[in-house]
Amino acid sequence: MSTATDIPRGPTTADLVFIIPSEDGSALRVDDSFMSESAMKEVHSVLITDIRGNEDSFSLEVHAFEALRNVESSTPDEVFADDDAIKNVYYPEVSKLLQQHLGVQEVAIQGHGVRRQGKDGQRQPINFVHADHSADVARRMAQEHASQTKKNHLHDERYRIFSVWRPLNGIVESMPMAFVAGDSLDKNDLFPVQYSDPHNEFTGLRFNPGQRWYYWSGMHNTERLLLQCTDSRVGLYVAGQTPHSAFAHVGSSRDAKPRVSIEVRALVFG
């Protein structure tokens, strides 16, 4: 059982891995080997502020992330061991949460990832800075959904993509999530990265000392972190997204419980 001393809290400094953009501005292409190629990445030490106790100071409209507390869930733990069960049981729960919290017209779940730190053959926490989709991919996804569902009115609606993140095995003791405030980004530091093929594209971020980084210490199963990946509406702030990365917290003990978490990616309209 976790004790107060097991949970790393407060401001901290950590090394984050940033992908280096291409020199000519074209979409960078990477594969599973790119993390071992030093020419494609650089490491920067950044100050990361803990939002615990100040959750209400941050909003999607300004910072592109939001912290939700006391979220009720009827999904049994065993569901998260099976991808089909997650789709059938947990997806509707996430859709309902987003509809109620955001007041959106429609939610279309795009996929999920369960990450089990330290487990061989399992997805690991992603330890480089990224946002889950590029603006071009988000636009294509929105157009395809509107066309496939024959809901033509959605072509004119605002659309966003969110990652809904939560732990699955209790309070997070190691490898928490760092995320950058959307209003601290320079749009010129954002660039597309093609992963394996041109249709699988995410957003990379060039390091800038003006970026403000945060994390939510000791997240537990009744909390949800909403990370905005894209926003079709312009003019609200510089960038409607919050790139993010797992990081090694210097305050985590050697015997800290490995992190198990799930993120669900959702396209919302309205």
From TrEMBL:
GO molecular function list: oxidoreductase activity
Originating species: Lophiotrema nucula
Name the record gives this protein: GA4 desaturase family protein
Family in the record: Belongs to the asaB hydroxylase/desaturase family.
